[in-house]
Automatic annotation (TrEMBL):
It comes from Bdellovibrio reynosensis. This is DUF1304 domain-containing protein. The chain crosses the membrane at residues 6-26, 47-69, 75-95, 102-119. InterPro entries: DUF1304 (IPR009732). The keyword Zinc does not apply. The keyword ATP-binding does not apply. It comes from the Bacteria.
Length: 120
């Protein structure tokens, strides 16, 4: 259970970082560099990016719930559900926006899901 919680925590931290990037740094120099945006393109899309960041926060919050929930069986179900959500979001992002999203978002969740299914 400890290894599963640590991995879920790492994936959650990744998604809290995505939230921060998309909601607060989108139009800042660091966000422009990471997302390879021009200032104008970033300004035009900042509300969409903030919305996307919020969804990443929900994914992270779900994984945190799976770590802190006192019922191990229900925590496992929560974790599997949110890993699957992250995987789907990562695959969709890779197909529609940038192939790197698969490796940054979906792959860690796939590894976490395999770990949870193996040890859970």
């Amino acid at each position: 259970m400890i290894a599963e919680n640590i991995f879920a925590g790492l994936v959650a931290l990744l998604h809290f970082y995505f939230l921060y990037l998309e909601m607060f740094l989108w139009t800042k120099p660091q966000g422009l560099k990471i997302f390879r945006n021009t200032p104008q393109k970033a300004e035009d899309s900042k509300i969409l990016a903030a919305n996307q960041g919020l969804y990443n926060g929900f994914l992270a919050a779900g994984l945190v719930c799976s770590i802190v929930h006192p019922d191990n069986y229900f925590a496992f179900q929560i974790r599997v559900f949110f890993y699957v959500c992250v995987i789907i979001a990562g695959i969709y992002g890779a197909l529609t926006a940038n192939k790197k999203i698969f490796f940054v978002q979906a792959l860690p969740a796939i590894l976490g899901l395999i770990l949870s299914l193996t040890l859970g």
